[in-house]
Amino acid sequence: MTEQTPDFINRWINLAQPRLGAKIVSCSDDFFAECSRMLSPAAPVFLDGKFDDNGKWMDGWETRRRRDGGYDHAIVKLGLPGEIKGVDIDTTHFTGNYPPAASLEACFSAGLPDDSSDWITLIESTGLQGNSHHYFTIENAGCFSHVRLNIYPDGGIARLRIHGRVVSDVDALDKKASQNLAAVELGARAIAWNDAHFGAAANLLNPGRGINMGDGWETRRRREPGNDWCIIELGHPGEIAEVLIDTAHFKGNYPERCSLQAAQVSAGTVASIVTQSQFWQELLPPQKLRMDSEHRFGDEVQSLGRVSHVRLNIYPDGGLSRVRLMGRIHG
Question: What are the structural domains, with CATH classification, of the chain?
């Protein structure tokens, strides 16, 4: 467990977000606060003086006080199966009612898991503190579809975030059909960026259109020469034929222009890929952008064949909501 915000928070998506399909499938008790609130994408809030029929309203999952010697638990179906890289167990606003300890298990199950499922312990029983984030880096390389959070013996958890990488079955995909190779559902991810002051680069790959200006990638105001950029690793390598750039909700702060470079990368580290990306071939020459609009580029896209990584350049700075890279999967 670490106290400072770890790298996995920005490097890997939250697999337990409802818009990917994550949901609570069972819980032992949620007398004081519905378990589904634990997966809310918004930061937890405290509403002073708000009560419901069962007591103080809390923004999270909260069970009643146990008197039987047992413990409470909740099973979460992840939005998409994947490798779990890190976990945040958040007790924000829970002070005299947080669990003293918690553990986390995970399994892969096509249906509803139970005690007979092959549960693997990812986090051993660990002490918790009130009103705090508890960050855990996970080293297990398995693919999981469900997690089970155990709290000892009872109490409240504001949020549970399960950060990781989606694992998609390339053999199950239609190789002849056009796919969004930058879809988080295929396992695409943002691996590097020069700045993400106002919004994470990973938001570019989320499903659907952006829900607000915070649901996109936005850099600080650039006060020096140059431009901002991010690098996207495709879910599966392929040939890109069409590009969609969406500036939804960005009006006084959208980039003037954007361009794309791409390459097939066979090996290397993130640092070496960043260096190489400056010299990649041009996939999309610089294109003028408009505020709060979808931009589709087809004829402008250069034919580069099979690529695995794309560098998105914005000039000079600003915010984008979504990027879609449409093409066919290769191998």
Answer: 8-166 (2.60.120.260), 171-329 (2.60.120.260)
